[in-house]
Amino acid sequence: MAPNTPRKPPSRAAAKPRIPLAQKKPPPTPVDRLKRLFTSLCAQIDGGHFANALKTCDKVLRIAPDDADALQTKRFLLLQTEQYTPALVLIGDAGDGRFERAYALYRLHHEDDAEATLRALKEHSADERGVLHLEAQLAYRQGAYHAAFDLYNQLLDTAAPHSEEQSDILTNLDAAQAHLDFLAAGFQRALAQLPAALTGSLETAPPPAAPSSAVVALAQEQASAPPEKPVRKVRAKRVPAGVVPGVTPPPDPERWLKKSERTVATSGRRRKGGGGGATQGAMESAGTGHGAKSAGGGGKGKKKK
């Protein structure tokens, strides 16, 4: 009979059940991505994170370039972050963005263009409060204080009591009233308080000359020149003891080089035993040479054999 061969016990690895591999999730569809982005956008705007909200708007517009809600939100965010030139480019000549266009032109100090845009806007929405506010601010900036005063009174009559809008209207109304009072009688009181000699010279002085083109060009160059970098002061902790910044001369820049490699070589110290101690006029003896005895004769020489 054949000898019985022992059977191998089954391995543990073979006994374990196989775990199926996890299947990869399919990439999110554009609709799902837009839902997530708009959720993040609403949270960022509610929290006041306008810079991050602008980035989220750009992501939405990469997926859906013609999304009206994303475009309108980006216009709002550009105006909130005071990026008026990009806002004008985004608005273009769209009919639904005339108010934003007029506001951006007003903030960029393009008063004539802003006034023309407001004039076209008032044909469709003359009684809108935002249009009236912007028209009053533009009239105040252009020096039309009577028009600004009338517009602020019109807004004050319909403003909610004890509201933030009412407080702003009252402040602007007081400013317009102050200008009107000064133009009516305030400047006369100011002139009456001046000395008589000064008022006489003001009345007889010729009108000021218009600035020349060279002066205007110089002023524009100075305005467009980049600001000078502020001079950084040296901290007192980093200044060594006994050094006064601006007074103490700077250290030698070649102090890390060898003396022989410096541009101004300095003579080193003499070596010891190099004839030091000799007085002026000392002369060596004639018998000095190789094997000569010392002048003192104190040492005994070797005897010849």
Count of separate DSSP helical elements: 12
Q: SS-based structural class? A: mainly alpha
Instruction: Classify the oligomer.
Output: single chain
Total number of beta strands: 0
Q: What is the mean predicted local confidence, pLDDT?
A: 78
Largest sheet: none
Q: Which regions contain 5 or more consecutive residues with pLDDT less than 50? A: 274-299
Strand content: under 5%
Distance between the termini: 114 Å
Task: Give an overview of the whole structure.
There is one protein chain. The longest helix has 29 residues, at 164-192. Helix 3 packs antiparallel against helix 4 and helix 8 (129-141) runs antiparallel to helix 9 (145-157). The relative contact order is 0.03. Mean pLDDT is 78; it is low at 274-299. This protein is flat. With 305 residues, it is mainly alpha-helical. The chain contains twelve helices and no strands.
Quick overview:
The protein has helices spanning 12-15, 30-46, 50-63, 68-80, 84-91, 98-107, 111-122, 129-141, 145-157, 164-192, 196-204, 213-224. It is mainly alpha-helical.
Helix-strand blueprint:
Elements lengths: L11 H4 L14 H17 L3 H14 L4 H13 L3 H8 L6 H10 L3 H12 L6 H13 L3 H13 L6 H29 L3 H9 L8 H12 L81
Keywords, please?
305 residues; mainly alpha; 50% helix
